[in-house]
Amino acid sequence: MNEREKMTAGELYNPADEELYRLRTRAHKLCVDYNKLYDTDEVKRYDILRELLPYCNLDEIYFQGPIYFDYGINTFIGKNFYANFNTTILDVCRVRIGDNVMLGTNVSLLTPMHPMRWQERNGKRNKNGEIIQLEYAKPITIGNNCWLASNVTVTGGVKIGAGSVIGAGSVVTRDIPPDVFAAGAPCRVIKPIE
Fold first, then answer.
1. Catalytic: 114?
2. At what angle do helices 18-35 and 42-52 cross, to 10 degrees?
């Protein structure tokens, strides 16, 4: 199993791998190019997103910008999607976003995880003498008809149920059921949405 396969499978992998470095560099360049454009540069922005997010139907996706992706190729977005300023998606593992989802400013979807034990987290030298810090990732799933308000952070391994609203400034570290309002750090269910 190569490092890319380990990464998307949620196993410990080497992020300094040559292929992964090349893919990240490509995504970061595309994000920089996108972020330099105005809203009126619709065709150029579309072309960049088509390259960055090859598995998404871009006809109903809008990113205000600036945007930040680790890879882009591991993100899947449904129709009628809107993201406000400063969206960050570290898609080391799969990020699945349903239809009719809105993201407020400064929303971060973060799939990378680092080992808790320092013996695994601290860098180790490979056969070439380079220091490698292993990491792993967990997927994120956001159901249809969700709204994540400003400054929400979603960590790896989380599923947010369809129709739910996440309050501003929340840190979502565990699953949120469908059709609820949840908020806080850590995020917890406040009430059902009726």
1. yes
2. 160
